[in-house]
Amino acid sequence: MDFGIIGDILFPPACVACGAGVGNGVICGPCAAGIVRYGTLFCGTCMARLPMNRKICHADAPYLLGAAGPYDDAALAALIHALKFQGIAAAAGPLADILADYVAGRLRLDLAGAIATPLPLSPKRERSRGFNQSALIARRFAATLGLPFEEHLLKRAIHRKPQSETMDILERRENVRGCFAADEAHARKISGANVILVDDVVTSGTTFTEAAKALKAAGAKKIFALAAAKA
């Protein structure tokens, strides 16, 4: 007896955004198609759009920031919430696909050879959640674009409260200060490499900045920080 099929009959899959039935997956076609998509990169320091996908305002920004869409898009936010807070790992698939479409279809960035890696969680938080949501997104994103994927280039050296629980940008900066370090076992892979940091959502950019500092200290050449959504 296939209890999975019985479960689907009794509790048919529903779109995480609108609640409509879906034959397969976690989001219906209309909700997925209606997600607002960005068409530029952003400055990692001031968050300004970069129409030419080049640093034109803060040349010393440690990375180029990419975000596929706005977090206030209800369907995009629903996917992230389902993945991050409801434990629906399958939501990583459409988020990775949206990010891949943004990079390859809209920006037409040539990232050949760049290593994709997720922002790491602390071991305590990953055990609690059951997975690293950024790793699920990054793995599928890399596979879609044919990029190398390394899950453990960075490690979270310090466990602190989630950034979503901080009050302002000053607290956010302090909360992640010194949190990341290059994993010693993979440090040689970072030196001289172009690295793509992947996360689910970017707000102030402070987490990406701290991670980029650790990568730069380990010898990374160029860093792209990519998120499915920008708050």
Plain-language structure description:
- With 231 residues, the protein is α/β, with parallel strands linked by helices.
- The protein folds into 2 domains: 1-34, no CATH class; 39-230, Rossmann fold, CATH 3.40.50.
- Helix content is 37%, strand content 17%.
- It has 9 helices and 8 strands.
- The longest helix has 16 residues, at 92-107.
- CATH architectural name of the largest domain: 3-Layer(aba) Sandwich
DSSP summary, beta strand count: 8
Number of structural units classed as domains: 2
Mean pLDDT: 91
Spatial strand order of the main sheet: 2-1-3-8-7-4
Structural class: alpha/beta
Order of helices and strands: HHEEEHHEHHEHEHEHE
Query: How much β-strand is present in the residues?
Result: 15-25%
- Share in helix: 25-40%
**Distance between termini?**
45 Å
Largest sheet: 6 strands, mixed
Indicate the CATH topology of the largest domain: Rossmann fold
Question: Any low-confidence stretches, pLDDT <50, length ≥5?
Answer: 1-10
What is the class of the largest domain in the CATH system?
Answer: Alpha Beta
From the spread of the alpha carbons, the general shape counts as: globular
Rounded to an integer in angstroms, the radius of gyration calculated over CA atoms is 18 Å
